[in-house]
Structures are given as C-alpha cells and as structure tokens.
Amino acid sequence: MEITAEERINLQKKLNNKEKLNNDEIEKLINLLDQTKLGLKLFYSQKEETIKGKNIKNYYYFFEEINNLEIKNANKKSNLLIEGDNYFALKHLIKINQKVDIIYIDPPYNTKNKDFIYNDIIISKDDDFKHSKWLSFMKRRLKLAQKLLSDNGVIFVSIDDNEQAYLKVLMDEIFGEENFVSNIFVESNPSGRSDSKDIANSGDYLLIYAKNKLINEFNKIIFDPKESDLKGYSIQKVGSNSRREDRPNLYYPIYINYETQKILLDNFEKSIKIFPKLSNNEDGRWIYSKETLQSMIEKNLIEIVKNTKNKYIIKWLDKEKKEGLDLKLKSSWHTNGIYSLSNSVAKIQLLSIINSKEAESMTPKNIDLLKLIIKFSSSNKNSIILDFFAGSGTTGHAVMQLNKEDNGNRQFILIEKENNIAKDICYERLYRIINGKGTKGKQDFKWLKKNKPYLKENLKYIKIKLEDKINGNYEEIESSKDLYKSSFNISNININEIS
Ligand SMILES: C[S@@+](CC[C@H](N)C(=O)[O-])C[C@H]1O[C@@H](n2cnc3c(N)ncnc32)[C@H](O)[C@@H]1O
After folding, report:
1. Which of 365, 417, 419 to mutate to test the pocket of ligand 1 (most atoms within 8 A of CB)?
2. Where, if anywhere, are coiled coils annotated (predicted)?
3. CA-wise closest residue to 391 among 371, 410, 365, 370
C-alpha cells in the first residue's frame, strides 16, 4: 500500500497529538516503517491528478489533425507537433507501439517563479507539498517515457537545483540506478545569476539515463578540440634536451619529396635529405626513434605541412584525436568554439525568428545543446527524437539543422500543452525556418540573413481533445476513431479502443 505525502503529514500530526489511529492508519504506519528502513523514500502527492477538477483517468482523449496547418514539402515521413497535455500524448504513443530513440525534456523547474501548474493550481514556493506534487507529476510521465524508449534509447532531462536531487532519486527508481549515465553540469549562464546571494549560479544540469546501459553505445564527440590536436605536432623536439648531443641516436636523416609528400627513412628517387636543425643552426634531434617513426609512416600518421611562415615542417597527426575517437565527453559542458550552451544566445536565436512579446517571455534552450545531445546519443541518421515539454520547439529546430548538415532523416515529435505556445511560437518558429516565411507571409525576420530555410521537411499539427467519460459525447468520440488512426502515420497503428 503506497502512502501519499499528505497522508504521511496527517499521520505525523496524529502521532504528535497522541491521537488514536484507526486500523487503516496503523497499516499505513507499519508500511511506512517498512519502506523507510530500506533507505531514502520519495513521497508522492495525491495519487490522482486532475484537470478542471476531474481525475485525468476520467477523460477520453482523442486526436484531431489540423489539416490546414500541415506542412508537406518532401516525400518522407512527417514530424509531429502535438498540442495538449503530454500525459495523454505519451499514453497514445505507447498504444500505437511507437518507439523513440532519444528523449529530451526541459520540464518546469518548480522554481520560486511559479512556473509549475499542478491540478489546475500554480504551485507557490510556500506549498508544503511542492516537491511531492512535482514528483507525482513527473513520475506519471517519466514512467510512460521509459516505456517509449527503444532498447538502446536514452533520455536527457534538464533540471536545476530546485528539483535535481529529487529527480535523480525518481529517475533511479524508474530507469534503474544501473542505467544512470551522468549528471552533466551545463554552464548555460557563464556570467552567473546576479540574484544569487552567496554563489552566482552559472548553469543547470542534464540528467542522462539509458534504457539499458549494457547495450547502449554513445558516440565520441569532438567537443572542444585544441587546434594542435587537429593540426598535429612537429616531430622535432623543441625546448630542453632538444640538441643532438642530448640524444645522439635520435639524430638521423629523413628523406622527403615535398611535391609528392612522400616520406621515407631511406633514400629514394627525387628525395632530399633532412636533418633536425635548431633555430640557432645547431644540430637538433627528432622526438621518435627510427623504428617508431617507421611505424608511424606506415600508419599514415606523418604529414608534411606548411607552417605560417610558409616553411615546410614534418608533423605527426594524432588521428584518433582528429577523428574524435578518444575524446570522451566530460561531465561539465561549457561554451566553446564549436558549441554555444548559453541561454542568452538561445533567446537571441529564438527572437531572430519570432520577435514577439510571447517569445521574449520564453526560456528556450540553445540549439547547440540539442545538437550535441543528438550527436552524442546516436549515429543513426533515421532516429526519432521526442520532446514532451516542447516550449518554443528548439528540439525540432536542432533536428532539422542536423538533418541539413549531414543529410539525415531524423524525425521529431514535439508535445506542448499551451495553445498560445504550441501554435503561436513553436509552430510559427518551425513554419518559418522550414518555409523561409511566416504563416502570415512575413519574410523579413533576422534568421534568414544567415540561414537558408530547411524546405525538405514535413510537419503535422495534432490537437488533443478531452471528453469527460461521464458526460462525453460518444458519437463524436466514435467518429474520431479514424482521424485518431490517421494522425500518426509514423508507425504501424494498432488500437482497439480509446481511453
Ligand atoms: C521550460 S519550457 C521548455 C522550453 C524548451 N526547451 C525550449 O527550448 O523552448 C517547458 C514547457 O513545458 C510546457 N508544459 C508544462 N506542462 C506540460 C504538460 N503537462 N504537457 C505538455 N507541455 C507542458 C510549458 O507550457 C512550457 O512551454
């Protein structure tokens, strides 16, 4: 028998007042003691969630495809934008046996700024059950998300200090501690928050879990290569111990033909003989023995390159580094020459597409963060990426950008509850970057100055409608079954009932 946070507080009050407990309460108390002796236990809020005062389980939900919002540019499967509560959308995706490879979510952080609505009420910082309510909300959805992940799928959740610790325990419970991959610190606000009292908070977290860590393989990423990693190093020793007399056996000739770029340790036709020379014209020495250099030549790791002074130098290339083979991502991510993780840049990215008051009030994530997540998770260019707290649609934007960069066919499914955000911001953003103009014909937004529209992408807009099971209009629900089926042509559909 599970005990809710509210029941736990009531029990506590009764015990403090030395009130008599009834049989049900005694059983709950025994259960509670059993559970807590196992270790840390999260307490969830009321078991049931409500919408307009009614239990969410008392709703029929059905899907209406908004045909006049469909974008159809290419002969390929469509991306989806679903407007409605993600609880119903996730349930439906499970019902049609949809699987997704990558899930990214950026849920309400449950901050002091009243960003989280539960059971139709804005949760305030003084609510005694604020953590339990948030956990109940997330647990219900994360359990569905876990079912949706493909066998080698992976989920990323952005979160900050308000709920990070609680979320970690919840995710351990749902995905299994053994599938925990990392808790990344993402430096999204490098200058630090000015309203932090003691330590200026400069970022948030990204919790990563695999569906099954044993079979999951992540990609190595060139996250922040140093120029020298890519350009290679001179094979001549510099600095201390660099003279011939320091290591006489590392002074030997190399034969080179600059035109054909051929290098050998023995003389060959049209080659010239090179010895290591220091800048003061003294004899120098190489870094490698003849044997090592020979094997590097055979592995194609030695190159002749021109330096900035237009002089030839012989370099060894760390090919593994060049190809990113040994570059493991570290657990703290910062903006660098390749990826920007900054939230303020993310806002500029959004405003360059939609410059409205509504867009100004959003807290979008950076497109590069999503690109990094997708590249790290899967090299499958056909993967399906789900974001069920879509907001302004950054995840969809990043998927299309990556498809453009590597000719991929990835698809995205976005879910956003609020109509004004789903339609006016998320849909409008995706429409503009796909078509190069706004839904009302606007063509002078800044993004177009530096980018070309994606064109070769499709999008379907689906609205979730709810009917009260008790007072519902069954005829409408029945007739919606076909629509409901046709909404998702991204997988085989197998539904027997709506509920
Ligand atoms: C922090 S924002 C996500 C921002 C997004 N990552 C971006 O880059 O724009 C969270 C979004 O989740 C939406 N949301 C909250 N509860 C939801 C629910 N139950 N179902 C679907 N969307 C929900 C909110 O309306 C809000 O737009």
Report:
1. 417
2. 1-28
3. 365
